[in-house]
Amino acid sequence: MTTAVYAGTFDPFTLGHQDVLDRARQIFDVVIVAVAADTGKKTYFDFQERVDLAREALEGVQGVEVIGFEGLLSEFVRTHGANVLIRGVRNGSDFDYETRMACVNHALNGGIQTIFFPPINGKQTISGSLVREIHRLGGDVSAFVAPCVCRALEKKRSGKNL
Fold first, then answer.
1. Does residue 31 contact residue 25 with C-beta atoms inside 8 Å?
2. What is the DSSP letter of 78?
3. What are phi and psi of 67, to 5 degrees?
């Protein structure tokens, strides 16, 4: 059984993330969606909210496990018996950044290989920051995220707890 890790902030989990995950599921037996606790940036949703939203958005999807993690991704991969990292790349700057990260992760754990998924159907060009901005300005984000994420965004905007 081959296990891959698809790690990210997932702030929030988008249909672009779902597209990358669906394509990875065609190749790997198990894909762990690893939600990063320490992102080095301020997130809209807190760590537990991001984990819970990813779990809800992916509920019932076969071969997928959502796990929140802290610390080095390379260590998380080792701990979970995986050797493949999945990364979505939307453009050249994503590719440059992800290539650097792949080199670092490989240096920290020589067993890690990184596979990049470029945009295919247009959904992958959607970013969490774009979704948050559209929502902040009052736009409809339902074409970009699962219904549970739309509800969470509305609750967040109204000041209600998730």
1. yes
2. H
3. -135, 130
- Give the amino acid at 45: F
Domains identified in the chain and CATH numbers: 3-158 (3.40.50.620)
Q: Measure the CA–CA gap between 73 and 132, rounded to whole angstroms.
A: 25
* SS (HEC) of 144-161: CCCHHHHHHHHHHHHCCC
Q: Which residues fall within 8 angstroms of residue 16, CB to CB, at 6 or more apart?
A: 88, 90, 123, 124, 125, 126, 127, 144
CA-wise closest residue to 153 among 7, 11, 9, 8: 11
Does the bond joining 119 to the residue before it have cis omega, within 30 degrees of 0? Answer: no
pLDDT at 162 over 70: no
Does the pTM exceed 0.90? yes
Question: Distance between alpha carbon 5 and the CA centroid of its chain, in Å?
Answer: 10
Q: How confident is the model at residue 159, as a pLDDT? A: 74
| Residue 95 to residue 116: CA distance in whole angstroms | 8
Position 56 confidence tier, pLDDT thresholds 50, 70, 90: very high
DSSP run (H or E) holding 117: strand 113-117
